[in-house]
UniProtKB/TrEMBL annotation, chains A, B:
The keyword Lyase applies. It comes from the Bacteria. Signal peptide: none annotated. InterPro entries: NAD(P)-bd_dom_sf, ODC_Mu_crystall, ODC_N. It comes from Salipiger profundus. The keyword Zinc does not apply. This is Ornithine cyclodeaminase. Keywords: Lyase. Its EC number is 4.3.1.12. GO terms for cellular component: cytoplasm. It is an enzyme of class 4 (lyase). GO terms for molecular function: ornithine cyclodeaminase activity.
Length: 326, 326
């Protein structure tokens, strides 16, 4: 049997970073999604209520990639009480021709973090206005930081506005964004003026009630909503989704279950299937065609991104990691 | 982060074998399944038609176990053409309290093989007649061999009858069973006389039409049907299922989708929920109560068995394997 390569999070951080190459890799994944032949089963999800935990498993076969990733994402939300991170997990890369395990990436969620942020940059590449001076972000966690870092690769904004429920956490997040991007960053205490001043807003919260309402939209705004990844979550009001000139899903079938599309459909405001990001990238559906348009991209996270980032790691890893003679 | 232990198939074979201790471990898993609180999501299944392959992912949380297993089982059926086994894969053991990865077992399906065979022995322990001189097996693959080996631990039969579509493969299988158990073993060319002479028959084939029909049943017979694990497979005729004195499922919800129960329900021959093996073990449902009864056990394979075997490996592994400082 072929050798299997094992990489730790530290080794993976040496191999891949959140840079333009990674954004290109994720863009290629979405493009492949539009090409047909992708097999992406529904997420396997298991809740362990006694431990306030859950585990999600995602996978996707993408024609054109030699391997496919299978990702295990545990979230155990009492972990911080004992000094451990809530999110961790690993990715397995298997051969798409033999099913043999090729590598195990013990990434503790690092690869998910960067492939998720890179998808935000891909959305901006195709949907954001060209001139982007001010970017806003709702939420103050890891993705708030990484989404702004990824966006800055694509649209090097001068100023970043940060909103969060906890002003101290928002201040820490703003400081980190300023340090990572070189842009100025400041905390906003209200969402409406943040949206008003921004040409692009990324929502990264676990909100269960909409944060952005239709009255906040303005010409020349792009919103990437990446916080909602479960049936009970929503960040964008259904009326705002309906009012946008262009609303794009990473995957319609997923957004209808756990993204913003769910609420809009429940409200009877979204008939038919919106275009997918991959179709926009592939030129099969129009992206932004006018700087004054309002565009929204709904990102729930796809197995295609995992397969794309894991394949990228495999191509770059060289001699890194531990080799197991299986 | 805690260290992660990686074991290869060879190392795993040194740590656990198909013995009575393993049968007890699997019995405990089924008993826990009857105790409530088990979370066992539907199997994640992805087909890669271009490669004549598929991947299944199973997991189960079982109260009372410190960890839970997540099992990845690829089956790529063109592999033998290039000298590779069709089935391979791995198991991951995660903490049930923190979700952290504890170990990765690169078992190529070995742990699945022995936990599957051990389930057959558990079924025999509770459902087979006490006096068992002749055992029959349909099919000539790995499970045909292992099921007879496991059964012999529990009911040390004197004689084994083997049927397969290919007489040469059947002869090789019979020779292996004789060598592993010390019983005599011979090939039968017809199924009906095999069933007639046997007190216990295990069916291990991928048949899509029933092999055992109601007219073959006789008093004092137990059948364990473990071949069907997909919607299109069946080994036991619906009328035979209905005619048995006792029909037991490993998990009703799974047997209704991919076991023998599916066909029996479709034929309108099985109203209500049959008992589960765990309930029989726990004394919540009767097992065999008379040596003249006909009993059938339907095994589709459960995530509980994976969690039980992986936890057993973790408890026994000592210093084996490679330690990754994650």
């Amino acid at each position: 049997m072929p050798d299997i390569r094992i990489l730790t999070e530290a080794q993976l951080r040496d191999v891949v970073a959140l840079d333009r190459e990674t954004v290109d890799v994720i863009e290629n994944g979405f493009r492949a999604l539009a090409g047909g032949g992708v097999v992406m089963p529904p997420v396997l999800s298991m809740a362990i209520e006694e431990a306030h935990g859950e585990v999600d498993v995602k996978t996707a076969y993408v024609p054109g990639f030699d391997g496919f990733a299978l990702k295990v994402s545990p979230g155990f939300f009492d972990n911080p009480k004992i000094g451990l991170p809530s999110l961790n997990g690993l990715m397995i890369l298997l051969s798409a021709t033999t099913g043999l395990v090729q590598a195990v990436f013990l990434d503790n969620g690092y690869l998910t973090d960067i492939r998720t942020a890179a998808a935000g940059a891909v959305a901006a590449r195709h949907l954001a206005p060209e001139d982007l001076a001010v970017a806003g972000v709702l939420g103050t966690g890891v993705q708030a930081r990484l989404q702004m870092q990824a966006l800055h690769l694509e649209r090097p904004f001068d100023r970043c506005l940060v909103w969060g429920r906890d002003p101290q956490r928002a201040a820490a997040c703003a400081a980190d964004i300023a340090a990572a991007t070189g842009a100025s960053a400041e905390v906003m205490t209200e969402i409406a003026p943040l949206v008003k001043q921004s040409q692009l807003v990324v929502t990264t919260t676990p909100a269960t009630e909409p944060l952005i309402t239709a009255d906040m939209l303005h010409g020349g705004l792009h919103i990437t909503a990446m916080g909602s990844d479960q049936g009970g979550k929503t960040e964008i009001a259904p009326e705002a989704l309906a009012a946008a000139d262009l609303y794009v899903c990473d995957r319609v079938s997923q957004c209808a279950l756990m993204g913003e599309l769910r609420g809009a459909r429940a409200a009877g405001l979204m008939a038919g299937d919106p275009p997918e990001l991959g179709a926009v990238i592939a030129g099969q559906a129009p992206g932004r065609s006018d700087p004054r348009q309002v565009t929204i991209c709904d990102l729930t996270g796809t197995g295609v991104q995992d397969t794309a980032i894991a394949s990228h790691v495999a191509a770059r890893l060289g001699e890194a990691g531990t080799v197991i003679h299986a």
